[in-house]
Amino acid sequence: MNIALNLVAVRTIVRKEMIRVLRIWVQTIVPPAITMTLYFIIFGNLIGRRIGTMDGFDYMQYIAPGLIMMSVITSSYGNVVSSFFGAKFGRHVEEMLVSPMSNATIIIGHVAGGVLRGMLIGILVTIVALFFTRLEVAHPFIMISVVLLSSIVFSLAGFINAVFAKKFDDISIVPTFVLTPLTYLGGVFYSISMLPEFWQAVSKVNPILYMVNAFRYGILGTSDISIGYAYAILLVFVILLFSACVLLMRKGVGIRE
User: Is the C or the N end of the chain the one with fewer CB within 10 Å?
Assistant: First the structure.
């Protein structure tokens, strides 16, 4: 396999993805910024005044990492699922399949595009957050590595959704009925220590809880879960989802059918 050729292919796909994101910036960049601004105003400012502090932090400060992570997750997932399904719908995915690039290269290129959009939105939301509260990064390496791994996980998940999707409605089912509930129940707005023991145990089944808390630990230095568990879960999901993507591409599921 020609490594140099595949590197060129990855760069080309990533470049295409970023051009697409920036070309329709009104749809891809502005909405998350507006949505998160509303979250900060309503939940952080108005409701937060009544709540006071949580885990020793001002409520606005406490929810900021969760809102940043939520925007990264949804943006990464949405970018890949819409992009790859668009390639299937427009039939130009067939051009990639008959080219010398490997299936892994196609996956990595689209996932890298999703990660870059997720990071871009994450930075933008962080800037928005700084208008409302003060954030001092406690553990920079943990913060960056967790947000990067989380973005990769949901970019891969978006790729799988796109592979199975047969119509445009199919790419919105998982975000609406799975991703959104898991995100809201993932400790973005509260500490699971506030829940009864049974619901704490149920919450710990949600992988997003580990991502949000690990990212919050990176920024604020506080977490409801073990950071080691969070890294283990992230790495397992990356390996399993990437393997699933490669297997689906190799079998031509949703593409050669």
Answer: C
Residue listed under structure tokens 């871009």: 120
The number of residues making up the chain comes to 257
d(CA 148, CA 43): 26
Q: Which domain holds residue 77?
A: 3-251
- Digit-coded pLDDT (tens) for 64-99: 999 999 999 999 999 999 999 988 888 888 888 888
Does residue 50 belong to any structural domain of this protein? Answer: yes
What pTM was estimated for this model as a whole? 0.93
Handedness of CA 70, 29, 131, 38 (dihedral sign): negative
Number of folded domains that form the chain: 1
Q: Is residue 216 assigned to a domain? A: yes
Structure tokens at 177: 């009925």
Flag whether 257 is in a domain. no
What are residue 57's DSSP bridge partners? 54
Whose tokens are 């108005």? That residue is 46
Q: Tens of pLDDT along 10-36?
A: 999 999 999 989 998 888 889 988 998
- One-letter identity of residue 221: G
Cα 191 to Cα 20, 32, 183, 237: the distances in Å are 37, 24, 14, 24
User: Is there a domain that residue 225 lies in?
Assistant: yes
